Amino acid sequence: MAVVGLVTSPLMGEIADRAAHEMLDEDRVAVVLTDAAGALESQSLRTPGAEGDDLRAALERVRGVFAAYDQEGALPPVETANALRSVIESGSTSPAVEDARALLGPAENYGGLISFRYVVPLSGFLIVVFGLLYIRQRRAGGYRAERLP
C-alpha cells in the first residue's frame, strides 16, 4: 500500500506534468496568461472579499510564471500548469478562462495517458513477484493451519 502512495502517485504526477508541459504551445500559453493577467487585475480591483482574494491569488501565480520566464527564458513546467489551473478556478468571467481550459484540458489528458504508460509495467513486475511467491508456497505444500501453543 505504501508503494502506491509514496512512490507511484508522485511518480505518475511528475510524469504527467512533464508530458503535459511538452504538449503546451508556449506562444499560446503566453498569450492566454497575458490576457488572463489583464482581466484578473481589473476584476480583482472591483471584487471584494474571498472572490477578490481568489482573483488576486490567480494573478500572483500568473505573475510568478512571467517572472520565471524572464529569468530562465522558458515557461516553468509545474508553475505554468498551476497558473492555468488558478485562472480556470479563479471565478473570473474573462474569455481567458475558457482559453486556459482549452489549453490545459488536452495537455493534462495527454499527460495522464503517458504516466500510465510508464507506470503500468510496474504492475507486470508485481504480478511476476507475487506469482513466484505463490508457486514457491504451493511447492512447499501450500497453506497449513497450525495451532499456536
List the helices and strands and how they pair.
Elements: H1 2-23, H2 26-46, H3 49-72, H4 77-89, H5 95-139
Helix pairs in contact: 1-4, 1-5, 2-3, 2-4, 2-5, 3-4, 4-5
Please provide a written account of the structure.
It is built from 5 helices and no strands. With 149 residues, the chain is an all-alpha fold. It has one domain (2-120). The model has no long low-confidence stretch (mean pLDDT 89).
Short description:
This protein is an all-alpha fold and 149 residues long. The chain is built from 5 helices and no strands.
Structural class given helices, strands, pairing? mainly alpha
The secondary-structure element order is: HHHHH
Low-confidence stretches: none
**Gyration radius, to the nearest Å?**
23 Å
Q: What form results from the Cα inertia axes? A: elongated
The strand count comes to 0
SS element count, helices: 5
The end-to-end distance, rounded to whole angstroms, is 32 Å
Average pLDDT taken over every residue: 89
Q: What amount of the residues lies in strands?
A: under 5%
Give the proportion of residues in helices: over 70%
Largest sheet: none
